[in-house]
Each structure stands twice: as C-alpha cells, then as structure tokens.
Amino acid sequence: MALSIRCATQTYICRRLTHSMRTRQQKNCVIANTIRCLSVVHGNINTLAPKVKKFVEENAALFQPDHIHICDGTEAEHTQLLSYMHKQGILKPLTKYENCWLSVTDPADVARVESKTVISTTEKRDSVPTPKEGVTGTLGRWLSPDDMEKAYQERLPGCMKEPVINNWPCNPEKTIIAHIPDRNEILSYGSGYGGNSLLGKKCFALRLGSILAKKEGWLAEHMLILGITNPKGQKKYIAAAFPSACGKTNLAMMNPTLPGYKMECVGDDIAWMRFDDEGRLRAINPEAGFFGVAPGTSMSTNPNAMLTIRKNTIFTNVAETSDGGFFWEGLEKETPNDVTITSWLGDKNWKKESGKPAAHPNSRFCTPASQCPIIDPDWESPKGVPIEAILFGGRRPQGVPLVYEAFNWQHGVFIGATMRSEATAAAEHKGKVVMHDPFAMRPFFGYNAGQYMAHWLKIGRTPNAKLPKIYHVNWFRKNTEGKFIWPGFGENSRVLDWIFRRVDGEDCARKTPIGLVPQNDALNLDGLKESVDMDELFRLPTDFWQNEVNEIKTYFDNQLPNDLPDEIASELNALKERVAKM
Ligand code: OXD
Ligand code: MN
C-alpha cells in the first residue's frame, strides 16, 4: 500500500506524534531507519512544511507503506491515480460519458457507520451529553483517551503492509472513525466509503468544524445553501438543514415551477457561517463537489444534478447498463429498453422482478460542483453569501405542516433542536422509524449536543446581528391513503416564495400554536398542476401535537437530563401550554 499525503486546504489530516512507550531516542532511530528505506515515488519530502514532514515521517514509520506519494493536486496526477485504480480493478470506466468511473465496494462497506464513529476527549461530557441512568445515549459516542490509544495500537502499526485481498480495501470488523479534538486529529480506519473516508466532509467540516466554530463564535452546519432571485430581480440566500437523504441536493439544485424565479446553488450539504462586520450572517460551502445519493435522482426530480454528473464523475455502487451507462432506481423511464443491466452486486441480467434493487440505496455520485448548470456566481466567494432565512426539515409523514415560521430566534433554535425524520439509507439504520435528529446534526456533532444548542442560543445574542428568520418545512406529509399530499421538487419554490416575502416583511402569516403559517391564499398556487388538499396539508391534529410534545419531553429527559439549556426547556413548556389550548 502507499501512503498518500494530500496537502489541499480543505483536507485536514494529522496524527498524534507519539504512538508507543519508546524513548524519544529509540523512536528517532526507528524513524531515521524507516525514512532511509522509504521510497518516495512522487514529490519531495523535504519541500513539505516541517510539521507536515514530521507527520509523514512518524506515520510512515508506524504504518510501513511500500511507497510515499506526496500529492500535488495537478490534473496529471489525477489522471495517473485514476489509471492506477483502473489497473487495480478498483474503478472501471463508464464509457457512455466523458471521464466517468464506477466503483463497486465490498457489500459490507456501503454507508457511514455511526456505531463506530467516536469523539475522544478526556472529559466524556465535553463530547456527549449524560443520558438518564439506564438509558443508552444516542447523541454521539465517546472514547476515553486510553481506549483511543488501544484502538491506535490494535490497528495502526504496519497497517499499510497488509496485502489488499480484494478490489475494495476495508476491514468492517475493525472500522473506526475517530476524532481527537485536542489534537485536531481524525483517524479513519477500515472503511473506504463516503463520509467515513472523505475526511474533509463530515469528519472535518462538521465534527471538528463544529468544535472550532464554538470556540471561535461561528456555525458549522449540515446545510445546503441556495440563492433565490424573485421575479423583480431581488436576490436572497437561504441555508437549509435536513437529515441525510431527505432531498437536500434536490432543493439545492431546484428548477422552480413558479414563473420568474431563479435558483442558484452554492452548496448541497455543508455551510460554515459567521457574522460579517455589518452583522450579516455569511455562509460558505467548504466543499468542492457534491457527494449525492443516486437513487431517486432523474431528469424529472433533479435535472441539474443529472446534467452535472455526465462528466468527470465517480459513481459508487450504482448499476451499469450494457451500453456503458449508469442505472439506479428512478431512471427506468430514461434508460433505453434494449440495454441489459448489471446490478451493483454483479447480477449481469438484473431484472426489476428480482425484487432486489439494481443500485444500493446509498449509492452515490461524486462530482465537481463547478459543473452544476445553476452553480451560483458567488459559490466560491471567500466572504460568503448573506443568509436571510434558515430552514429545518425532515421526513414527517404525519401531523407536521408544509411550512411554519419560528416566533423568534430562540423558538427557531427549539425547532432545530426538536427535528425528527424517518430514517434513511445514508447510515446503517433499518426501517422507517421516525428518529430524533437535532439540527440534522445527530451523526455529526463534534461536541455535547446540549452545549451545541447553547451555542446556537449564544449566536442569537451576537451584538448588532441581523438574525435570519427560522422555518420548519415538511415536503413529505402523507394523506390517509399513504400518498404524499404536496408534489414537492420544483413546486417547493412556492414555499420559498412565501419565505422570501416574509423575510421582506410582508404581512402574510397567521399565528398557530406551533408557529406562523401562511395566511389563507398567501401561498402562491397559480399554475399548480395537481390539486392539493391545503387544509389537510396545514391541519394541526391536537392528538398528534400532544403526542409530539410528550415524545420531545421523553427524548430530552432521557438524552439530555442535565445538558439541556433552560431556554429550550422553557420553549417546550410554552409549546405544551399552547397545544393544550388547541
Ligand atoms: C451525506 C450524509 O453523505 O449526510 O451527506 O450522509
Ligand atoms: Mn449530508
């Protein structure tokens, strides 16, 4: 195996410098010997910054790779790496498109493994809230420094010497995705899939990022960023948090059905936000590309994503067509009839009737954001784009209306803290249970979720801040027959139009016990093709909301009995009182 070092600005890897009880002298000697034997096949180790050089030397001594490759980030290197992986059988070209590749992983390595994702700090409470006695905490996992050291010792010495025995190197039994905030360090071992191994994404930009954000007074969030221009040519940006696989990428690249509107995408997954000197909350997308869920993506659901991925894209665990194309559930109408389909599991004559999906439900495309036809002109602006509304949302089949607005920032933080959604395929959860997912960050908190809520409340007290308005949206409410009530996708522009007008100060909302909803007729439904039962979409069933209040109370009592900020507890009481009067 080779040790590759990537020194790009958004990739952040470093490891603790001591790994054993050896004396410094012995250790230096081991390193010196190792370095003499190492073959650096690309780049010059002496040109690295001293800290990086030391990192490489120490870890090369520990991991014992065959070669060291120091990445330079050039196109030539990129091509060379692709061709190397092609020769190794890790990638194969999808010849129907330009520079597109397919990789099929070991079936045991297909999603983020939350059960093996840990934060290691001296004090447990810095990482995770203390649950009620007898209750298992679900807001992150902590590993003691001693256990962390053991985990290192069990896995790292000589780990790059092991032969790769299949086309997908992984070690599911020993997988660990560890974060050591005190050392700004990530250890990802045993998985090559998505968020487990694209370390700049969930590990750095969210988990370590949220810790840096708390220290420095900003926000690192699991949010898309979208620019909205209305028919008058006025532009506003919003950020929106949804749990994984709830349609963030679709919303981020939406084609609005409402005439005269234009949407532009800044990012589809992560937002880093801070106030500028004028008190405006400015957001940047710290990622270079999109790592989107493939199934369900099609020219009818997300044409802009489909146009983005036709070149320079790596697909994982999708199915392949006999004409060299990709296939997944949702592309049936767009796939020629005369092709055969090879499923992600290698069934060469896959048929729908097999009852098994052709593509893994968490199969993905990894594609450059710059190729998106509606990429925002300011998507790489270092000062970021000004955010005027923040949306929280999830998959709520029952009881939760299409949209409601928070009464104020504190109520908005409560709405974020009480987000719930049906589980998805992005992680290892099974079934369609409705899970609590505060701020859509449950798998990504870098520190105690109670302190995270307190940080959001503190952000709301920033002097001279022009605080964005906060909303909750739900595209997924179902009727008694189990059908979605709202058509979603491009029609969601109607909800964004209402939000836009609210942010502009229009008096088009009415008060309900849970928040402000559109006044009758305030949602622009002109030209909506199908008839929508608006009463059902906005109905607030008393028994549902009483139950919701009880569920939230039980959740907080179980998970955050000592860590919940008082303000959030008092928001829950206030909701309870309002619901009691419904
Ligand atoms: C993702 C996720 O991959 O949230 O973005 O799981
Ligand atoms: Mn995500």
Automatic annotation (TrEMBL):
The keyword Nucleotide-binding appears for this protein: yes
Family statement drawn from the similarity comment of this UniProt entry: Belongs to the phosphoenolpyruvate carboxykinase [GTP] family.
EC number from the UniProt entry: 4.1.1.32
Keyword Transferase appears in the UniProt entry: no
Enzymatic class: lyase
Domain Phosphoenolpyruvate carboxykinase GTP-utilising N-terminal: 54-162, 166-213
SUPFAM superfamilies: PEP carboxykinase N-terminal domain, PEP carboxykinase-like
GO MF term (any one): GTP binding
One GO CC term, this protein: cytosol
Xref: PANTHER family: PHOSPHOENOLPYRUVATE CARBOXYKINASE (PTHR11561), PHOSPHOENOLPYRUVATE CARBOXYKINASE [GTP]-RELATED (PTHR11561:SF0)
Species, as recorded: Paralvinella palmiformis
Gene3D superfamilies for the chain: 3.90.228.20, Phosphoenolpyruvate Carboxykinase, domain 1
Gene Ontology biological process terms in this record: cellular response to glucose stimulus; gluconeogenesis; glycerol biosynthetic process from pyruvate; oxaloacetate metabolic process; propionate catabolic process; response to lipid; response to starvation
Top-rank taxon: Eukaryota
Coiled coil location: none
Protein name, per record: phosphoenolpyruvate carboxykinase (GTP)
InterPro entries listed in its UniProt record: PEP_carboxykin_GTP_CS, PEP_carboxykinase_C, PEP_carboxykinase_GTP, PEP_carboxykinase_GTP_C, PEP_carboxykinase_GTP_N, PEP_carboxykinase_N
Keywords of the record: Decarboxylase, GTP-binding, Lyase, Manganese, Metal-binding, Nucleotide-binding
Domain Phosphoenolpyruvate carboxykinase C-terminal P-loop span(s) in chain numbering: 218-578
Obligatory cofactor(s): Mn(2+)
Cited Pfam families: PEPCK_GTP, PEPCK_N
